Amino acid sequence: MRPVIDMRGIHRIFESEAGFSHVLHDITFSVGAGEFVAITGPSGSGKSTLMNILGCLDTPTSGTYRLSRLNVADLTDSELAEVRATHIGFVFQSFNLMPRMTVLENVMLPLAYTGTPRSSRERRAVGALQAAGLAIEHYDHRAGVLSGGQMQRVAIARALVNDPDIILADEPTGNLDTHTGALVLNTFHRLKEAGKTIVLITHDTNVAAAADRTVRIVDGRIARPDGDASAERRLDPARVPEISRSPILGGAR
């Protein structure tokens, strides 16, 4: 199985007035095409920082990230924006829908930025909503009147509308009850069967169990099967100031 996500020795260090915060330590793992992988761990373990790097919303302080064999560090800002728009679909816990827009308008929205004709936008949005499993009678409803499970399916459809290779889902069942969360997970399974690669971040071990395999993060490190955090190649603390002055260094998190 060829990897579409390949991370090697990823470190992420943030600088603030309080000093340096080493959030990710030597993260190394890969995800094959068509795999469904859950990244799990307690709050504050670095999952969201890792998701931002996976989604090309942030850049590691050191290490190599290859996305579909592209070295992300070599891409320009415009190329990164194109990767995010065409190769990655994002699904968030808070849905991030426009409440006064209809379901169909919400799903069509990403296509408006690509110059896609309206007729094609509508056709593709309907196809994405069908793939996400939302009933057709909801398409002309305003997003703000939907249930949590329905809103999450709209969010999944919006992530699918550009036909991305990879779906990144950050706590997609966090605001849902158990039954509705299970329905959303079934949607991800159908997408996997259709050939999509799915990376789902969750703190819920029951949700993680629905994936093909689980990568557990503890204190910014990938945990070994026995539960201990691996730290085989930690950075020398003396190098932290040098790394943290990198032009790609972001703010505190």
UniProtKB/TrEMBL annotation:
Q: Which organism is it from?
A: Enorma phocaeensis
Identify this protein by name.
ABC transporter ATP-binding protein
Q: Where is this region: Disordered?
A: 227-253
Which branch of life, at top level? Bacteria
Q: Where is the composition biased (Basic and acidic residues)?
A: 227-239
Q: Which SMART domains match?
A: AAA
**InterPro entries, per database record:** AAA+_ATPase, ABC_transporter-like_ATP-bd, ABC_transporter-like_CS, ABC_transpr_LolD-like, MacB-like_ATP-bd, P-loop_NTPase
Question: Which keywords does this chain's UniProt record carry?
Answer: ATP-binding, Nucleotide-binding, Transport
ABC transporter domain residues: 5-244
Instruction: Cite a single GO MF annotation.
Output: ATP binding
Any Pfam family: ABC_tran
